[in-house]
Amino acid sequence: MLKKTKVDDETATGQAGIKKKSKVPGVMITQFMEELPEGKTTPDFTRKPIALTIQEGKFAYFKAIVVGDPTPTVTWSRANGEIIFHTDVCQQKYDPASNEHTLEFPKVAPEDADTYKCYATNEYGRAVCTVILNVIEVGFSKTKELQKIQGEDATEFRKRLKTRNPDGTREEKTMDANEKVWEILLSAEKKDYERICAEYGITDFRGMLKKLTEMKKEREEEIAQFISHIRTLKPVEVKDDDCATIELDMDLLDSGSKIFLYKDGVMVPFSKEEGEGMKHNLKQVGKKYVFTIKNLSKDDAGLYSVDVEGVNVFSTDFKVPEVDFAVKIQEVKAEEREDALFQCVLTAPMNEINWYGKSALLTNNEKHEIIVSEDKLIHKLIVRDCLPLDGGIYAAVAGIKSCNAWLVVEVEKDPAKKGKKAARKTTIAGAGNDEELLRIAKEQQERYQKEMEEKAQLAKKAQEEKELAAAAVRAKQKAEAEAKAAAKAEAKAAAKAKRAAAGKDGAVRKTKKKVAGAGADGASGATGGVVGVGAGSAAGGAAGATGGAAGATGGAAGATGGGSAAGSLAGAAGGGAGGAGGVGGRDGSGAAGGAGGNEGGDVEGDSEVESDEDSFEDSDEDIEGEGGGAKGREGAKEGGEKGGVGGEGEEGGEKGEGGEKGGERRKRARAAPLVPDTVIDPGVHFHAGLSDCKAIIGEAAELECKVSSEECVGIWYKDGAEIQASESLTISKEGCFHRLKIHKVTEENAGKYKFEADGRKTEAEIAVEDPPRFDKEELEAFKAPVTIKKGHKATYKLSYIGREPIKVQWYLEGEELSSEGNINIETSDGTSRLLMMKLQHKDSGEIKIKLKNVFGTIEAVSQLNVLDKPTPPMGPLEIVEASSSVIDFKWRPPKDSGGCKIQNYILERQQVGRNTWKKVGPIGPEAKYRDSDVDHGRRYCYRIRVETEMGISEMMETEDIQAGTKAYPAPPSAPKVASAFKDCINLTWSPPADTGGTSILGYNLEKRKKGSNLWGQVNPPNEIIRGKGFAVKDVVEGMEYEFRVSAINDSGAGEFSTPSEFVFARDPKKPPGKVLDLKVTDSTYTTLSLSWNKPKDIKGEEDEAKGYFVEIRPAENTDWDRCNSNAITMTTYTVKGMKSMAMYWVRVIATNDGGEGVPQELDNYILAMPPPVRPRFTDAKIKSFMIVRAGNSARFTINFEASPWPEVTWLKDGVPVSKKVTISNAEGTSQLLIPSAERSDTGIYTIIVKNIVGQETISIEIRVTDEPKPPGPVDLDENVPGTVTISWTASPDEKRDDRLHYMVTKRDSVKRSWNTIADRIFNNKFTACNIMPGREYQFRVYAKNDMGSSKPSESAKWLIPAKKEKFTVKMPESKACDLQCPPKFLVPLKMHTAPQGYECYMSCAVKGDPTPHVTWLRNNISLNTNTNYFISNTCGVCSMLILRVGTKDTGEYKIVAENALGRAESSTKLTVRE
């Protein structure tokens, strides 16, 4: 089955999720933080929803009341599926007056039965409770039948939708509206169902949901055949680049599955390459598929469907509104930290348009505010607090139209503010043309309304033409129906004449009966009210009611049609269920007549009723207008439609004679009516019956019912026995109300009660319950708060009654108490006592007792207050006034007053510098004090204690407070050099921001030579500087000085400012010239290194440069940004923080005391990137072949270097790698990973590293294989004497592995070992030679590949019998032979290189006779006796083994062989590799 991503409603990240108990059972509270702010609470239910069992079709609802600060938000959910909020299905409401949240079901259906959850959530927590809705299904349901038919229609519709061609494509035909709406609903969200149904005229919402659920289930099964997961289905979205996209994420089971795109059921061709010129394009990125529609126009509107292998996966309806931009958005230039406004005007109203910022969709948030005017024509976007990063292109998209403009953010140019965050501005850039926009919007609105009126007129005209055509069709149909009715009437008249003649000839027996006895079945005949009442319509209704109650006949006696009462009599004679009587008015506008009986007969126009059954059987004519009918239902219909139409008769309604309209044939007139004008009383009936009730023992209970008559007298019964009034029971009657009251209920009063009156009865049951209850007087005493002192005890005692067993629980602040420690709980018959000893102040809180038995729960609450000493007052101290004559200050009350009211604060004061404390005394309960007994300039400290009835708290000691503090001015700004000459330096400064509360009188100025530590005052001590500048003339030419200044107010001189910059006492200098040889020495993606030479020093024109400024300018901007705020003295600089691959202009400015020189720019712009480097692989040795065992992972890493950052592509056998292969690219490296390799992954993998400089490729062959399976049976055959042809069945892996080959081994009866006789055989046959007769041979065949060899397949034994010949021995003549020779090395020692820690094996072969003595040496030291070396000499093969090679084993090794005839040597070197 197809799996879809589902997101659960979880606790938000960072929320603690503390579970709490609610006072309401069944409510779970989750608190999101450990401590709640003061006054804030988590949500809770004061009334939770109650479980409900209800009959289908009724009105059902759940009610809940919640509390919490801040006010919680209430939501509902259900266990199975989601709640569909629709006016016909389910509605959520809130009543502010009662604070009730309701979930209503107007007509509850069986599918609404479920477990529902109600959530109350605020920022501090969430409360949740569950409730069950049970729905009882009853009887025949038209809705069910309709749903059944619709279900069949849905199946047929799905079959039509699935009509496909053999290749999976749809039939070439345009979809109709019915097919479209279901495809849209299958892919739509539930919140859009109501809108779609309204748009396509679907009224049966529940039927639609059921049909849609079946179709979705069937489609999911179909999709699961081709797709494992599907999610993120995005409908058509118009972008700001004149294109629209459809996005979906799906994981195809087969990557080769075909994908089709349809528009209104017609296949749309598309390309998979963006560069191609086709209108539709498909781009795949991993599991994400994006369809793009380019060059949008009105013709692109329609239903777009995406199919995979003939199965519809997703459909979306693309609508193109007729709208354009009357005013487009314009470029906005905003200063940093200023708001920017874009605004546009549309030609037609739209609720919202899409705004894009730098190709990203914008939403309404703190940064971006989207505003729409009331007429929905003016749309605005405000970009708050603009920063340089916010600059770029912004676009507005309405329908398929779009417009865009630049937002240019101007950065602060003041070098002094460089790097500092600018102040927030309240102005809005781009505003000011609101009146013009309103004028244009008004014009567009008028034009739009005019177009709408024209369209409405055209639609109205078309509707009128349609109605005229329909009226003509109806008139034609009516004429045809009248002609048919006339023909039927003639046929009936002929049939009547025929039956009349047959009746007379057959001597039909007729019996005259009175109207009171009419009714073939013996039932009471209901006459249905006054016959033919002209204007009294109520009479007809009463007659109908009477007829229905008595159930006598099928006719309506009140009908006036037919002109005779015979119809009424005939209806009575029918003998069936009676219907409602109709009333005929004198003006012919009477109500409908009644229904006929079960088996009505044909009745003649006179007052006689024929009893012959044959006459009824032969009748095929309905008695119209007379209340009777040939068949029950037809009679009811005819009587209802025609029986009540009264004409203007001779005597109107009094004699029951109507016109010809009442009955469709004329009858004989009667002098008097056959049916008397009587009304049968239907008897007493109940307006309100008894209701079941629950009664509590000892309390009163009452049953009440209401009957239709005040004269009615009834009888009360209990459990079938009649009951009478008594002392404990009162029976009363008040008008139509009858009451039974039990004054004091006992167990014996439980049972079933019945009230019977006039044959009618109603029943109810009294259930007697005995829940726990408190004694009222004791309860009032219990509720009174209890106050005690710390260390004392508190006792609570409460009596109760109720049926045992009763569970008693005591709580303190919501936590249940138990008998332990200082708590004792005693519970006896009807009484519970709580004793709490040695109480502390922390034990204060709510005391609650809870009683519970099978009938219910009751609680009682009291308050416990334990008094204790208060805690010290709290700081910090707030100084209101600290002048030369008074100190006024405040503090905070104690955190805990111990449960008592604060009586006094006790203060003590100490003058700083003294050891004594002066008692100020109690000052009252207010936490403030004003001390006027102070000396100017003195500092004071205070101790504060709290006094209550429980005692005095610990003290709080304040910080020192000075009386009349002297306020000196703050330092002025650092002096600035206005100008400098050899005999005078002019300075200026700014006054301090803080003047100390008084005006500034003047300034003192000091100077200091460079290199000196002494400051000297410039102005005379008695002459302060009054202005904000000064000309210093006491300077020496060529010396360098710095200056500082202090401000003076009434309190004296304040602190000095920061020193000024050093300045020479000399005439002004000339600015320097341009720097020389400016060039770029290095660059990266974020940095740029520069170097230059000093400018030339031209005397009198250009002086020497003292520093340099580096400035850059992005290519798209016109303003230069200074990189260094202070001039640098070096002739090199590295610019940082550049955007990768961005274009910059760079310049350097030389500066000195004379000012800044002319900037020197680079000739060309600079790209922020490293120097171009052609891609190159950096691995020293790269494998070109890799073998991987099937099932294992294959990993291959390539290291490279390239600049700029290259594009890395992996191919397998020349095509892109499949989704199964994971490619990981990092800086300078790329890795290919096959998680679980299969044989199909075998191939040549190529990596292409490409950038603007060039590209480089390298390939590796990866072979995925496994140990081969053994070959099949081995057969032997001798085709040529002395040879054996071995053949075998191929290994099963031969077809899958092109490198698989075979190896053959042989064993004979002489040499019992197996020897390889052939290897790397690529066919299934081999011929072995030198097969000798008389020997028994056996062969084995192995399958081999890159992973190893298989188990062998063994042949049967092979034997060629030997022909025995006579054996003769010829002894050769022996010759003496001297074999003695000096030692000689047949195989010398070889060079060895061994890894450290591994073993090393050296060997050589030597011959000599007599056998030579062999000696091994390392660096000319004998090793024969060294136990670290294993030395052996077998048949002239000399070997030495070093088990673990170390660095100490490096050196020259030599082997010496000696015998009596000579000596031989062989040497080698051992190199140890780390």
Care to give the gist of this entry?
The protein is mainly beta and 1474 residues long. 12% of the residues lie in helices and 39% in strands.
Provide structural commentary:
The protein has 1474 residues and is mostly beta strands. The chain is built from ten helices and 101 strands. Strands 1, 2, 4, 6, 9 and 10 form a six-stranded mixed beta sheet that branches. Strands 51, 52, 54, 55, 56 and 57 form a six-stranded antiparallel beta sheet that branches. Strands 68, 69, 71, 72, 73 and 74 form a six-stranded antiparallel beta sheet that branches. Strand 15 and strand 16 (288-294) form a beta hairpin. Helix 1 runs parallel beside helix 4 (205-223) and helix 2 (177-187) runs antiparallel to helix 3 (193-200).
Blueprint of the fold:
Blueprint: E1 18-21, E2 28-31, E3 44-47, E4 52-55, E5 60-67, E6 73-78, E7 91-95, E8 100-105, E9 114-122, E10 125-136, H1 142-161, H2 177-187, H3 193-200, H4 205-223, E11 227-238, E12 243-252, E13 259-263, E14 266-267, E15 280-285, E16 288-294, E17 302-308, E18 311-318, E19 325-327, E20 332-335, E21 339-346, E22 354-357, E23 360-361, E24 368-372, E25 378-383, E26 392-398, E27 401-410, E28 428-429, H5 434-505, E29 510-511, H6 537-550, H7 566-573, E30 609-610, H8 613-618, H9 632-643, E31 686-688, E32 693-696, E33 701-707, E34 715-718, E35 721-722, E36 729-734, E37 737-742, E38 751-757, E39 760-769, E40 773-774, H10 776-783, E41 786-789, E42 794-801, E43 807-812, E44 815-816, E45 823-828, E46 831-836, E47 845-853, E48 856-867, E49 874-882, E50 887-892, E51 904-911, E52 918-922, E53 928-931, E54 939-948, E55 951-952, E56 956-957, E57 961-962, E58 976-980, E59 985-988, E60 1002-1009, E61 1016-1017, E62 1029-1032, E63 1040-1049, E64 1052-1056, E65 1063-1064, E66 1076-1083, E67 1088-1093, E68 1107-1114, E69 1121-1122, E70 1132-1135, ...
Parallel strand pairs: 4-10, 20-27, 21-28, 32-39, 41-48, 76-83, 94-101
Antiparallel strand pairs: 1-2, 2-10, 3-5, 5-8, 6-9, 7-8, 9-10, 11-12, 12-16, 13-14, 13-17, 15-16, 17-18, 19-21, 21-25, 22-23, 22-26, 24-25, 26-27, 29-30, 31-33, 33-37, 34-35, 34-38, 36-37, 38-39, 40-42, 42-46, 43-44, 43-47, 45-46, 47-48, 49-50, 50-53, 51-52, 51-54, 54-55, 54-56, 54-57, 58-59, ...
Helix pairs in contact: 1-4, 2-3
